[in-house]
Write a structure and sequence with these properties.
PyrdxlP-dep_Trfase (chains A, B); PyrdxlP-dep_Trfase_major (chains A, B); 15 helices; seven-stranded mixed sheet; alpha/beta; Aspartate Aminotransferase, domain 2; 2 domains; Aspartate Aminotransferase, domain 1; homodimer; decarboxylase (chains A, B); about 500 residues
């Protein structure tokens, strides 16, 4: 393809993206695709072609075969998982970045990539209210993009393990302990299996809204220390995946003053974006995060208007990462790196090459401004309030945990009058709700996901697509209510009749 | 930004990318930017704006402030590191992929993303001549994208460690050993520090062209086994970074029949792409790779025409990865995953969310066809032959290792007649060549990188940009010769005069 062919294909791509978003904002297609596992393989040849093909044919096949298999994360009725960040500014940032394809692993390999990342993550850090200690401009702390929140947590754990081993060289890996809560994202357990280290998941209770409390942490640390084990890091969560729970960082702050060797990583993958609004900072323990977090991570590619991926990790002391991750063979040495006048971000993460993500975040931050971000966050929180009101007014549904920002977790919990028996035992309620979710999950016009909260099967509704409006939440509630009624009718038929 | 504003900004972006490539192919600007460390910070505000800005202003600032700080990896005179993959098809793939921003961690989260990846990596696997065991269609083995070759190797090591620990549960992590050669990319050592495991880098010699030999491996394994240590994986390299050395997989194949517990990961990050040409398969030990490799990785984002990043990892047995990396909390369960009818790629790598990269590789494979890939590889190899001939004709320069595909490593090694002394000792030669590289590296019109081969300081010249032509290699040689002469003159002035 030559430059003029690219211009033509590029215009066409832009036009088709516009067509797609016009159709999407008008809900002209459902959120979930109507394809079965394995649909694509019979539609494509089994090998690459011998000779190159004309791009117009490739673009046609894309429209015809690939688009039909998408789950539409930007669809107004996408209420599953957490939202995926999106903005037109983000696409443009990705486009310009892709056009200069480079793996900016050190300053010299593309100075503006490193410099822009350093500046833009300072902008982001300030916008979220993080302490000045986390700024790249501080020369001590700083932030850089990781691939995902999982890898950000992994990097934090590796840094903490390295720091601990440096202070206690005889420690066996087998005796080292990572702490999470039972509600921590699977990134905690996954980091454990990746590193071959043991993770202790601390219990949290429904009464505490699934938040990790200081006393629970203190007991565990004391117990493990007595056993001769070596606690070295806690992964605290701001906004868990199941219910949006927020670990009590204020209490944790008090506890860890007695355990100076333990590092704190704060995983705010989803809810961290709410820190852009002053009114949510207290519930997210921002002050305590700023006081004790060794590292903090949030995903602009979730609730932050930025196309996947864009996950910064900030640290209070960049040496924390570099001491653990700097390997510099001769072929990677540069005059600027040797002189120490630049940041070589490859020493801050797992891989060597790194995507050029700062450009899209720069575009997004400038395009929306702080006010635009605040508006985006508040809109989703307000839409969740609408949903919560609707659930409260229902005699069939109830929340399984307090709503958290733009996330609600609910289930069918019918009043006895709606069933021909007194009350349902917990096991039966779970079966009933699995049936309920089974009905919802085969629909293509709405997408919600399931979870389990301390044994209770429930359904999550997470708001955040830029295209979701009040009407879509009300429609979703109607669908949920409709399927709930049908579930109860089916259930009723399954039950033995009363006298 | 609304849809029509996006259309306008999108067209503008396409046009500007066209302008950029017209200028680049005519070498209208140098390969390296003329900026100093810290150039950008004073040019940008210290915080994100409060209100959103108009995109036309943002796009202007991009052109004015950011482009000037790029190292131009696609420039015809970019001869540093290894090339970064690029094609217009690749940009278009990134653009369409970015437009549906999604983190396709499981099948349901976007069926076509998973299915296309599964199919396209089969196309790629066949194109490179890998064994049918590595095909996703086999239902047993398969391939998926990792972030970089470093992370592919890391994943392979984690899988091998997990398999070894499953077979030998009492093994202490402290006693486990990873094997590499001293020429293995820093990804080996980095994986060691990440995982807290010891890496033993085996010596290779100049006489063996820096290739790992079977006897060296056998002695090390026997020695370590005698010490009670646990060898569990070898990272073998096809095309090392310093000199393009190829480990002797045929000999390694014989050795490992006696050590059935040791897994083999083949890192062919750069040179693997040469497997597309039948004539390079024997020198890359393809037959032996197909016989013994547990995993194999190469970067389409290096020599493979695909914009960063696109690094597949293939395994002979997908359980190898899944056993090590599958963590499935309730909120990630799906009907299709539970039924086992789909691949959930999140269980094949470190993170959870994953970029949608199959689209661009599909575009590139179709746009170029197998013949287009072969032409691209052969062109770079042929250009390297031109460079090698020029070096051979020089009485100042000599190669430090045999040329490997599209990579040459050279240094000044002057004939005694060109200096006022008999011969130079090795230390002085190194000093001379550092001076030489110092001169080359301050130029902006050509970009080469340094390395050290068994103590010998040398300069690498790696060819692979789609825009590099014969004339650019000849120009590069002229620049090198010019700087070499000036280096020798300066050196001559520094030396004590002869009698």
């Amino acid at each position: 393809m030559n430059i003029e062919q690219f211009r033509k294909a590029g215009y066409q791509a832009i036009d088709r993206i516009c067509d797609y978003y016009y159709a999407l904002q008008d809900s002209k297609f459902p959120v979930l695709p109507d394809v079965e596992p394995g649909y694509l393989r019979p539609l494509l040849p089994s090998s690459a072609p011998e000779s190159g093909e004309d791009f117009s044919q490739i673009a046609e096949d894309y429209q015809k075969l690939i688009v039909k298999g998408y789950t539409h994360w930007q669809h107004p009725s996408f209420l599953a998982y957490f939202p995926a960040g999106f903005s037109f500014e983000g696409i443009l940032g990705d486009l310009y970045a892709s056009s200069v394809s480079n793996p900016g692993f050190n300053w010299l390999s593309s100075p503006s990539c490193t410099e822009l990342e350093s500046i833009v993550l300072d902008w982001a850090s300030k916008m979220l209210g993080l302490s000045g200690s986390f700024l790249n401009a501080s020369g001590v702390g700083g932030g850089c993009f990781q691939n995902t929140a999982s890898e950000a947590a992994l990097v934090a754990i590796i840094a903490a393990r390295t720091a601990y081993k440096a202070a206690h060289p005889d420690t066996k890996l087998e005796d080292m302990r990572i702490y999470t809560s039972t509600q921590t994202h699977s990134l905690g357990l996954k980091a454990g299996v990746i590193l071959g280290l043991t993770v202790r998941a601390l219990e949290v209770t429904r009464e505490d809204n699934f938040s990790l409390r200081g006393d629970t942490l203190r007991s565990a640390l004391e117990e493990d220390k007595k056993k001769g084990l070596h606690p070295f890091i806690l992964i605290a969560t701001i906004g868990t995946t199941s219910s949006g729970a927020v670990d009590n960082i204020a209490e944790i702050r008090t506890v860890v003053t007695d355990f100076p060797d333990i590092k704190i990583h704060v995983d705010a993958a989803w809810a961290g974006m709410a820190l852009v609004c002053p009114e949510f900072r207290e519930m997210c323990y921002l002050k305590d995060i700023n006081a004790i977090a060794d590292s903090f991570s949030t995903n602009f590619h979730k609730w932050g208007l930025t196309n996947f991926d864009a996950c910064p990790l900030w640290v209070r002391d960049r040496k924390y990462l570099i001491d653990a991750l700097d390997i510099t063979p001769p072929f990677l040495r540069t005059a600027q790196g040797d002189a120490g006048t630049v940041i070589d971000y490859r020493n801050w993460h797992l891989g060597l090459g790194r995507r050029y993500r700062s450009l899209k975040l720069w575009f997004v931050l400038r395009g929306y401004g702080v006010e635009g971000f605040q508006k985006h966050i508040r809109k989703a929180v307000d839409l969740n309030k609408v949903f919560v009101e609707l659930v409260s007014s229902s005699d069939m549904l109830s929340l399984c945990a307090p709503p958290s920002l733009a996330l609600s977790v609910f289930r069918i919990n019918p009043k006895p009058s709606t069933l021909n028996q007194a009350t349902l035992p917990e096991d039966a309620l779970n079966d009933l709700n699995k049936l309920f979710y089974g009905r919802i999950s085969v629909r293509k016009d709405i997408f919600l996901t399931q979870t389990v909260l301390n044994g209770q099967f429930c359904i999550r509704l997470a708001i955040g697509s830029a295209f979701t409006q009040d009407v879509h939440i009300r429609e979703a509630f109607e669908v949920i209510t409709h399927e709930g009624k049908l579930t109860l009718e089916a259930w009723d038929r399954l039950l033995p009749r009363g006298p």
